[in-house]
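Contributing new records

If you add data, match the layout below exactly. Sequence lines come first and carry their own label; structure lines follow with theirs. Keep one chain per record. Anything else will be rejected by the validation script.
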Amino acid sequence: MLPSMVTENTSTAAEKPQLKRVMGSKLLYFFVIGDILGTGIYTLTGSVAGEIGGALWLPFLLAFAVAFLTACSYLELVGKYPQAAGAALYTNKAFGVHFLTFMVMFTVMCSGITSASTAANGFGGTYLTSAFDIELDTWMIAVIAVVFIGMLAAVNFIGVSESVKANVVLTIIELSGLLIIIGVGVVAVGSGDGDASRLTDIDTSGSNMLVAITGATSLAFFAMVGFEDSVNMAEETHNPAKIFPKVLVLGLATAAVIYILVAITSSILLTPEQMEAEGTSSLLKVIEVGAPGFPLKVFAFIGLIAVVNSALINMLMASRLVYGMANEGVIWRGFGAVHPLRRTPWVSILATSGIAAALLIFTAGSDAVKNLGSTTALLLLLVFTVVNIAVLKLRKDKVEHNHFKAPTWAPVLGAVACVILAIPGLSGKTTEYLIAGGLLAVGVLAWGLNWITQRARGQRVEPHLERLSEDMSNMPTSFVADPEPAKDSDKDSDKG
């Protein structure tokens, strides 16, 4: 089952067992690709086409460029501080402001919930209906999506087992679906089908060119996120300072090439109007038009696996972040409760699942996937802005070992690009700002209430990021339900 998180500082650093370094460059490469591929490309291609027009490849290329610049910052920081906890750790080291550190953690947690909610909508509204030939109205899709979140909560509660190799299998399945799309495009173009002239068309009918490009890129950016999670595997990677730079860049580049080829294929075979009308089913339509004889159910089941895996990873990450924050006393400690039999953080699982269910009901409608995907991208753009600034501030913090150092222009351009994509007027959308603002307001309220309570008790709110690092490094990378509760022999190390 999932190794429970360390919450008691009962031993010295010298006595603590080190995590086993099991990941070489090949396993890490598949881990990076597996974290990036998934819900975004499988559900949002049609929505991105509706924003940009036939030049669908352009926002994915620009999203890669922004992700690459931010990845340079992560590479410098993970080489410098090869610990888990990611953005929260870097924020705390750079600024030392507990409220800012908390809000970064909370924002990352919220991005996991909105990402899982996006996947839940894709599950109920697209791939489930296509796999089993059923039709559902808007509210039934929302109900199924909520039930899906409940099922994820059940798996999360029962317990999960860590398996990097299982992640490789799931990644290959997700990758196979996108390679099918690319293969269909190659055959179609070879047969003279489709219209390649659409690849340079940018739709400015509803806005100017700048807004069309930035709006589409901010949405496509959702498909590129996930690379930042790889820093949580630093302590389990052989020689991370040497391996991480080349593997992370190669993984990002691989995903970008695949996305651009999928986008080109889609634009050649379908008009932007067709893709926008199909919405989350646009890739299914690409196969239907480009390879009429191909069994759509095969691709539908691949899509199901892709969104389920993405949702599981994100909901587990969100619940464990809430659990870790509760144990550090930065939010109500009740969220850190662990079930006595299953040894899983049941209160934080219920809380994050409840937020996801509320989001699904609140955003129910034809634009649910687009709105939730955009919200996820917006939340992470805010986090990445902080990280890009943090890497510059931490340049004065020297370490003894050698590590990758990003060229100064990379984090500067990365921060500027993230801010531009997050500006309301340039994204061309408003709903995601309401959703993100509401979630972050909950975070501010949670911090404030806890701060008042702690001050009344004469305590200080100071998160220990080193212990949170231990919590995050124990997160699994793929999911296999564990039918057996923890044995008594595990309890000493599994205390919540």
